[in-house]
Design brief:
The structure holds 2 protein chains of 2 kinds.
Chain A: E1 12-20, H1 23-33, E2 37-42, E3 45-49, E4 55-60, E5 74-78, H2 82-94, H3 96-99, E6 103-104, E7 108-110, E8 113-119, E9 125-129, H4 133-142
Chain B: E1 18-26, H1 29-39, E2 42-48, E3 51-56, E4 72-77, E5 90-94, H2 98-111, E6 117-120, E7 124-126, E8 129-136, E9 141-147, H3 153-159
Parallel strand pairs in B: 1-4, 5-9
Antiparallel strand pairs in B: 2-3, 3-4, 6-8, 7-8, 8-9
The chains are: A alpha+beta, B alpha+beta.
């Protein structure tokens, strides 16, 4: 861990961003499929959250479609159990057309976490996973690995 | 005017507990860590080669935020950035005041080379917040913003929707 004085002191790691092409179908996907909470404080933006004070700001692209993101840049959602992952995967396959889901990858297990990824109507990847804050607590407590 | 309020769906298909993580990539993990710790005051850990997790400080046992929820950035080292990021694809930090944003601008501008930051935009008011943006060598964009109490994210959640289609 660095001991130097950091340039800035931040109060909160407060937000990330997500592009969308259309507000209404995006909101339906985020709320009814992914189960996120959302408000729309601006004409061109709606703010989503779940589980804490941070937000992901969904910004409507003014001209054209939302940028196509690769899997290198995606969001992970935490669910409680393996069965929740399986149910989400089955729902993604069953409701692809309804929610504009473009791709649904197979379920995988890595580091003890069950997960799958889907590509949404705005060309952004989401990962549904059993990874949890307790897992990250352990990782940070353990510190850097030897490599 | 509060035109409507729509809480989350009562029975969504995914039983999401939290937005737990966002992912991004770098071509130089050491540089990325130097920026996160040295510039943004974040806590980093590298559990395995080529992988780093980042979270805000204060969540260790005995610290102020211990036990409270947080989210994590997962940073992976890659040979190539497949999709360069733009301003609309950024990550943001909350500052305590407008003066704190100005101070961050001065310090980031003066020290950007050492942290792999290529550009720092002068702070400006936008959509009710006062913020600076900077971009790093991996094309990742970062925002440092101050919001007045009525516009912080928690307050906006309480207000509910201000617009509808």
């Amino acid at each position: 861990m660095s001991t130097a004085t950091p340039l800035i002191h931040n109060e909160l790691f407060s937000h990330g961003t997500y592009e969308c092409s259309e507000m209404a179908p995006t909101r339906r996907f985020l709320v009814d499929f992914l189960g996120l909470d959302i408000v729309r404080p601006l004409p061109e933006a709606q703010y989503m959250w779940k589980g804490g004070p941070w937000s992901v700001i969904c910004v409507r692209v003014q001209d054209g479609e939302a940028k196509e993101q690769g899997t290198q840049n995606h969001f992970k959602l935490s669910v409680a159990t393996d069965a929740d992952v399986d149910a989400a995967h089955a729902a993604a396959l069953a409701h692809k057309e309804e929610f504009g889901i473009k791709r649904v990858l197979d379920i995988e297990t890595s580091d003890g976490h069950r997960a799958f990824r889907l590509l949404d109507l705005n060309n952004t990847w989401w990962e549904i996973s059993t990874v949890s804050q307790a897992y990250f607590d352990g990782v940070f407590a353990k510190g850097d690995g030897r490599h | 005017m509060n035109v409507q309020f729509k809480p989350g769906a009562t029975s969504p298909h995914v039983k999401t507990r939290s937005i737990i993580c966002g992912t991004l990539v770098t071509t130089d993990l050491k540089r990325a860590r130097r920026m996160q710790e040295g510039a943004f005051d974040m806590e980093c850990v590298e559990p395995s080669e080529g992988l780093m997790y980042v979270r805000e400080k204060g969540h260790r046992p005995g610290e102020a935020k211990f036990g409270k929820p947080y989210w994590v950035l997962e940073v992976r080292e890659v040979a190539d950035i497949e999709v360069p990021q733009e301003m609309l694809n950024h990550w943001g930090f909350e500052a305590s005041s407008q003066a704190a944003v100005d101070d961050a601008y001065q310090k980031l501008s003066a020290n950007k080379a050492g942290y792999g930051i290529t550009r720092v935009q002068k702070p400006a008011f936008r959509n009710g917040s006062y913020a600076l943006y900077c971009v790093d060598k991996d094309s990742n964009w970062w925002e440092v913003e101050y919001r007045t109490p009525d516009l912080v994210y928690a307050a906006l959640r309480e207000k509910g929707d201000q617009f509808a289609d």
